[in-house]
Amino acid sequence: MKLFDHIKETGVKIIRINDLFPIFLVKNIMNEYLFSITEYKITYGWGNGYIGLPWWHPYYKIDFNDIPIVCHGLLTFSQLDEDEDLWIIGFDTSHLGDNKDYCSKEYVTKQCKYIVKQCSEVKEAQRIIKLNKLNKLSNGRISRSI
Questions:
Q1: What is the largest CA-CA distance in the chain?
Q2: Is the predicted pLDDT of residue 74 greater than 80, yes or no?
Q3: pLDDT band, residue 42 (cuts 50/70/90)
């Protein structure tokens, strides 16, 4: 089963933006609710943002708590998508104070692009990225022999 299949079963469409590090945008399916202990109304932003890291990236299979990425609310997710051989990392917009105006789809997309920028600037990844650009590998994937 693919990582996002359980989300697709709810009818939510996963928006994939292809890149060296694919971006996945997932609209929030949670409703507003009353947090019973503090009695504050908790709202959610538009959705969550995820990035797919290929096997050669230094953060591949590293827990989100140990990845030094700055984004909205910090990273809150990491898991392997075995079908696509991507390590998915991401964040959510379900923090106190988040709302659909501040955390819009455009905002989530910008945050994802910022994560991609940070992941592409990791020194160990730079060599592979440069090789990928120079070689323009036939299938668009880097050989595991590198």
A1: 58
A2: yes
A3: low
Quote the DSSP letter at residue 32: P
Residue 142 is encoded by which pair of tokens?
């880097």
Kindly tell me the sign of the dihedral angle through the C-alpha atoms of 62, 68, 71, 72: positive
| Residues β-bridged to residue 77 | 90
Element (H, E) at 86: strand 86-91
User: Rounded CA gap, 124 and 118, in Å?
Assistant: 12
pTM: predicted TM-score of the whole model, two decimal places: 0.80
Q: What share of the chain is helix, strand, coil (3-state, %, to 5)?
A: 25, 25, 50
| Single-letter amino acid code for the residue at 24 | F
Q: Is 70 helix (H, G, I), strand (E, B) or coil?
A: coil
Q: What is the pLDDT of residues 78-134, one digit of tens each?
A: 999 988 889 999 999 988 788 888 899 999 999 999 999 999 988 777 777 777 666
Cβ contacts of 69 within 8 Å, gap of 6 or more:
75, 89, 115, 118, 119
